[in-house]
Amino acid sequence: MSKYKKLSHVIYYHVYHIVWTPKYRFRVLEGPIKDFVSESLRSLCEWKRIEILEMNIQFDHVHMVVSIEPKLSVSAAMGILKGKTAIKIFKSFPGLKKKPYWGNHFWSRGYCSSTIGLDEDKIRKYVKYQEEQEKKEEAQQLGFEF
């Protein structure tokens, strides 16, 4: 099977590695909030026909490797994903909105996006196993060994 996808008038291969953070990089993406964000992102991506190839939600950031159709720009996709999830999060977890530092914005303003070409497998493995690697590095810094 080819990596290329087809629409009525285009054949494409658009794969992006996207990373973004909660406002002030607060470490709130854990437990029920992490699960909620994961489900929200999956349903929004399905709605907008964005294919999630890999996704990893850390305490303070989200990594996604996605395939986006050419008719949807990366910035439009990010506006939808960040905007809709923020609204849903504040509705489902009203305690977060009470904190004065949120200011009705859950996500930080920017995001990081890069296209994936020949190194796709390396980047997908990095996204998939990043959490495990970070735990090992933290343990080494604290003097523990695995």
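[next item in queue]
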Amino acid sequence: MSLGRSLELFFIDGRPDGMLTAEVFNWTGHVLRIPRTQIKQGLDRPESKHTGVYVLLGQIDGVPTAYIGEAENMRAVIAQHVSAKDWWDEAILVSTTGDMLHKAHVKYLESSLVEIARSVGKMTLENSSTPPRSSLTEAALANMESFLDTLNMVFPAIRVDMFDQRARPPLPRSLEHLQDDQEYLFELRVSKHGIHATAVLENGQIVVQSGSLAKSVWTSSSTAQNTPYHRLHTELLNNETLLAQGDTALFTKNYSFSSPSAAADVIKGHSSNGRTAWKHVPTGMSFGEWEALQLDIKELV
């Protein structure tokens, strides 16, 4: 079981949608989020002059767009982007508390973040290509990979999900083996549409397994179009996590959902109650019934 981490968010002007800093205990990294409307105040902060990597977030013609860059003085480069790029409305500056990153470090981070963002496919990148990774010593490489691991924990906490990789590697145990485990294996079937999906409850996430089938077309009424899960269904088709095969679509890799209903919506192609749609394989209970059974009511009273 992974250990917990302590994340400190400081809302500089007391507003959740304003400038903030993010730091993790025992991590040298420092993250500064600056709304474009506060860019002057943000660039007046000393950490904006540090060597680091930055992300610009906004929209171009209604399409969510990002740009990832690096600089030895982020203040100077961001100031140039104010006049050169009119589409972004938020900047994320990543550095270290002691300004300990150097050019090779941030070029490695920039390249890695571009690769991750392209792989996840949540946002269009204005970057024309993926920059090459800089050459680092074995020790520096390990340090930067550790830095990235923590950074990718921080990003979702400040509402930046473009690096949130929900595709999961295959579990080191087979589904047949999991059937002997009474806690974790679930399935969803819609026989008339030829849908059968299998999922494992892992670290609080519903991980739908590669080879599961979903609807290839979103079928909700017009009032349910363009919902978060409709957009996710489209996104998974676009990045080929779901591969359309006529009326059904195949999960080409394991994919993690935040709730049983999120997974059920994408699989069934419409809004549904995942707590009743998913069945616990060994017992046949619904997810909701199985969940309730896990609580010892006598201990809670």
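[queue empty]
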